[in-house]
Every structure is written in C-alpha cells, then in structure tokens.
Write a structure and sequence with these properties.
globular; alpha/beta; 16 strands; single chain; 11 helices
Length: 479
Amino acid sequence: MIKMKGFKKAQMTKIIAILLFLTCSIFAAETDKLNVIVIMADDLGYADLSCTGLADDVQTPNIDRIAKKGIRFTNAYATSPICNASRIGIATGAYQQRQGMYWYQGKGLHDPKFNTIGESLKENAYKTGYVGKFHHGRSDQPKHRGFPLNHGYDSFYGFSGGTKHYLIHNKASEKKIYRAGPMYVQDKHLDVEGFTTELFGQQGRDFVRKHKDEPFHLFLSFNAVHHYIHQLPKSYLKEKNLKPIPDFINTNKGKLKWREKFDSPNHPQGRQYYLGQLYYLDREIGLLLDELETLKIADKTIIVFIGDNGGCLTIYANNGVLKGGKRTGFEGGLRVPMIISHPDIKTANMVSNATVSALDLHPTICAMTGSEIPKNVDGINLSPMFNGEQLDTERRALYWETPYQKAIRKGKWKLLINESDPSAGKPEKRVEVLKGTFLYDLEEDPGESKDLSSGYPEIKQDLLKDLQKWQAEVKKSQK
C-alpha cells in the first residue's frame, strides 16, 4: 500500500476506495455515451427508399431497417440543391451562406467559429472518423480547414470533390480516365483497388471494430448514387445483363456527347444502372448494421441516414411527385430522405411530417450525446421527439438562397423566387424554370404546380419580408 505522511491505514484504504469509485464512475460515464454514425447518400431520389412506398422498382431492406428503429421524416430539407454547399450546413448546423457559400467554388468550410459535428463530439472525448466523399470548396486541401482531419476527425479515408470514379483509384490513370485517381488515406494520396462503395463500407466497419469499447462518431459519406452510375463491378453487370459503357478518356473531346448517350432519358437501361448503385449502397449499410449487432453495440448507437441534396434526374433518380431535382430550388432539389434511429424504443417505426432541416442534425446529435451545442447553429434540437413528444414546426421558417433561386418555407407555404435557370445549357436541365415569384401550398400541392400568389397577396408579402430579413441578417453575420 502507498504510504502518505499523516494518514492512518484505515484512512488510506478509504481514500483509495473513493478514488477507485470516481475512476470507475468516470469510465462508466464515458462508455455509457451513445455512439453516433451519420450515413450520407449522394444525389439519392426522394422516392428511392422502399420504406416510403413511392417507387415500385426499389428495394432497400437495410435502409428500411434503420427506419424501423427510428423516425423517418417526410418533410426534411437540405440547405442547398447542390452538395458542397449543403454539406457545410450539415456539418455545422448553420446556414452555409454565413461562410459566404451560395454555390460551387468559394472558400468552402473555412471559418473556425462554426464548429462541425466532428469537433463537437471530439471535444466530448469521442473518437472520430470520416470515410468517403467530402466536398466544400477551396478550403478542401490537406493543410486547410475544409479537410476532415482539420475539422474534428481523427482519421480519414476517401476523396475530395464532386465526382470520383467508382472503380479506378491509381495515379497512373488520373490524367487518362475521367475522374480516376488515388484515394486519400489520412492526408496522403495512395493507390488502392476496389469499388468505392465496398471500400467505404469496409473502412466504416474497420473503424467501428477499432473503437467498439469507447464512444465513437463515424461520418460515412458514400458517393453512391452520384454519377457515373454505369461504373459497376463486372460481375453485377453480367448478372443483370447490363451493357458495359466505356469511360470517358480525358484526351478525347466531346464529354457532353459521351454523357448524352446514358443520361436520362436516353439509355434504356439507365434506371437499372442507378438501381445497381443503390443496391450496393444498401448492402454496405446492411453489413455495417450487422457489425453493430455482432459487436453488441447496436443498442447504444444513434444512426442518421440522409441525402445530401435532392435526387439528380440525369442519373434516373426518382423524386416522386416532387418537381425538379438537383440544382433547382424546387422541392425535388431540396427535400431529401432523412431517418434518425435512436435506441429508445418509443421512436420505433415512426413517420413524422414535421418540417425539419439537415441543420438540425448537429444540435440534435449534441443533445443526445451530452455534448455542448454550439451557440451559432441555425438548426433546432429534435431529441425530444425520441421521448415521444410532438414537434410543432408550423411557425418555423427555412430559407434557401443560390445565385439563381431563393425560397422560404413556413408552415405549409413556400415562396419561390426564380431569377434565372441554374441548369440552362447544361445536361442537368430537366424542368422549366420560369422567372418570377411564386407561392405554393405544399400540403395540397407538393409538386408545385399551382401558383397561389394572386389569391394570397398578404401571405406572399409576409414571406418575402421574412426572406429579405434573413438575407440581411446573414450578410451582417459574414462581416
């Protein structure tokens, strides 16, 4: 026994017992924390989950498993119809416009005053890992804040940018084959072999196994089902009798003509390629869920599933009755699949029509893990819903602004201002964007087919004033 001057043996025994109790209590508090896994899909259609019942040709049994143990939101929104802007909103819980991000390019995730989910959980003694795609802007380089290792993540495996070849990941092919090239392992570019969806799934499972005995946060960001959907394993193409499509060679001219051959609606098997990418995405999610069960930590793990923006129509995504898709401010570009699974049985197989945002993930995750919620988030804490409470979002307003379109949703009403067409002259153009200001009742008309602005001028004006007030406040916060 350690001897300390002035203490009797009985006193020392008591002090050591207290210290042991405190140590065990601290360890128990750490191990009692819920793990957090955020799974992101890329360009996924709003209707393309079988649990929604909106598309007859879709089977996603493993994503459905998440929904059966949690809440599926039917009115969930991304903060942008494109991924690099929306991912900043997801990471920070604050509108990306506060960092000057409205569209592609820009500084990206660069301002340290906006904590990310990774940083908030790391500050709460979580082990953090990022796997897959990240895409924010010019700050995505390894020495800058946009890189995952510089905003809260201990480990990183994946790539930066909008598009990545699914099958070829080596330096030798980088300049020859469009979007081919090495993968980041931590901050180093290395040649790897494999199909990205399977590679990312395996890396996610490896991270979970490594940290199964301590609280962890995994951000698993698949590039499925983003273009180019024809890049599937040869075995799958053969099994489904799908014709291989040659890749674009960088030395060739005419990339748009190459794309036109298999972009929607030009290829008779286009939807089948898309469903192939979705099949592998769902399968890898299932393997991850199985791993959690095997490790006996499924009952202490929060799982979030979300799309980064609306479904991309050129890749044959199905947005159901929603108008438009990726790049547009219509519902098809902004409304996304979102599910949160919590170990609390009260939320099992629940469907919520509350108006929620990807902004809500950061404060909600913080609340559920006992982490500090950053003061400058725009999202709200959804965690009371997991105790069976109803969330009243009738008075809540959500805002969008791109160089082309602006919008506000409040209650059932949506005001949409079209200043120009974001897809004019591009392959992504699939819907007419008429200039003007439009008012829609989304409860009655989710397809945005009937402009009601002439019948409700006061509502139109009130929403316009609210939107302009938000724009001014955001501009002020950028200074």
